[in-house]
Write a structure and sequence with these properties.
By secondary structure, the chain is of the alpha+beta class. The protein has a single domain, classed as Trna Endonuclease, Chain: A, domain 1 (3-Layer(aba) Sandwich). The chain contains four helices and four strands. A four-stranded mixed beta sheet has the order 1-2-3-4, with helices on both faces. α1 crosses α4.
Length: about 130
């Protein structure tokens, strides 16, 4: 993954700050809501709810509606430098990207998106701040 992590800016350490992936992501969006004045582009940031456990009927409905395995968690559709936007896959602890997530990251890099795998909300915040400063 080293080749696809940190496209466009240096990699940071991979330390989680204690929460579940959902809690870390919620903390990131709370930080974003407090920093829209500083970074107005954060209003465009969103989460793709592809993960989680679902019953078979709900999973089938979502698949029919276009849900795809491996789509990264956080999207910031704001162009900077040579990139069309920033896409972040959130992880915690020792979790690693799945094969589907790695494939999405590879394909997004080909389409000129900056991509990051971030461990915890603070690493994601740092990646976003660096990206927005490009």
């Amino acid at each position: 993954m080293k080749g696809s992590e940190g496209r466009g800016f240096p990699e940071t350490n991979k330390v989680s700050f204690g929460g579940s992936e959902g809690e870390e992501q919620a903390a990131l969006f709370e930080w974003a809501s407090w920093n829209v004045g500083r970074y107005p582009e954060l209003r465009l940031m969103f989460h793709v709810p592809n993960g989680g456990s679902r019953n078979k009927i709900e999973a089938a409905k979502l698949k029919a509606q276009g849900v795809k395995a491996g789509v990264p968690d956080v999207w910031l559709p704001v162009a900077r430098g040579a990139f069309h936007g920033l896409v972040i896959e959130m992880k915690v602890g020792k979790n690693k990207p799945t094969a589907d997530q790695k494939e999405w990251i590879r394909l997004l890099i080909e389409q000129k998106y900056a991509t990051r795998v971030c461990y915890g909300w603070q690493e994601a915040r740092e990646a976003i701040e660096r990206y927005l400063s490009l």
